[in-house]
Amino acid sequence: MKKKKEFLFDKTNYKYVIIGIFFIVIGFILMYGGGSDNPNVFSDEIYSFRRIRVAPALILIGFGIQVYAILKSPKK
Q1: Residue 1 falls inside a structural domain
Q2: Which pLDDT band holds residue 73 (cuts at 50, 70, 90)?
Q3: Is the distance from CB of 65 to CB of 20 less than 8 angstroms?
Q4: What one-character DSSP code corresponds to residue 39?
């Protein structure tokens, strides 16, 4: 008798994992840049609202979604 393979997670868990990865990637993309081409010149663009508030918030939300996706019990 062949036993049916059973996955650890359900399809919804994997959807949440993909959504969490998407949030994390978007957060890192928003955080990218802001430096100056010349190392002797300082650019205030590095302190923009997008890089200081929005991007880290998206990354933390993404990690929260990842934790939820791992802890969510699949329907049996």
Answers
A1: no
A2: confident
A3: yes
A4: T
